[in-house]
Design brief:
Blueprint lengths: L1 H28 L7 H10 L18 H24 L9 H10 L2 H10 L12 H25 L1
Helix pairs in contact: 1-3, 1-6, 2-3, 4-6
Length: 157
């Protein structure tokens, strides 16, 4: 049971690290990352049976989508860390297997590329975005940061 709590905490810390990197990137490049309100909008519409959108930005907003989106963002971070716990066991917690943790963090980019972006109407790996390679690069940097954050957090939890 302790490993579950520690992995969840590592996922939350990794998400916070990813957000810190995102703030630095935005201050350097002027490019904003994903608006997490859109994640809440996507999940909010699922309650009504709508899982795929032509363009999530044109879908009706849902109540409290900004705070709910941020909460979902952190829940997803914990879920991803629990996924690593399920795949690799607890040996990564405490700092064991840092390269495995880093590689897993980077590999989590498949979630937005193959699930979230297509379902939001953005195409596989942001292929329907005006500048898909810019979006892909942003996703890769974010998930690399998640991996680094998860690796660092694994030493601390």
């Amino acid at each position: 049971m302790e490993e579950i709590w520690r992995a969840g905490l590592a996922g939350l810390a990794a998400t916070a690290f990813m957000d810190g990197v995102s703030v630095m990137r935005r201050s350097i490049t002027g490019r904003a990352g994903l608006d997490y309100a859109l994640v809440a909008r996507w999940v909010g519409h699922m309650r009504k049976g709508r899982f795929v959108h032509e363009n999530i930005m044109q879908s009706a907003p849902v109540a409290f989508e900004r705070p709910v989106g941020w909460a979902l963002h952190y829940v997803i971070g914990a879920l991803l860390a629990w996924g690593l716990l399920g795949l690799a066991g607890a040996r990564w917690i405490g700092g064991g297997q840092p390269l495995l943790v880093l590689a897993y963090g980077v590999a989590t980019v498949v979630v937005p590329f193959l699930i979230m972006q297509p379902a939001m109407g953005l195409g596989i790996a942001a292929s329907r975005m005006p500048a898909p390679w810019v979006a892909r690069k942003g996703s890769m940097i974010s998930h690399l940061a998640f991996g680094v954050g998860l690796m660092l957090a694994a030493y601390l939890v």
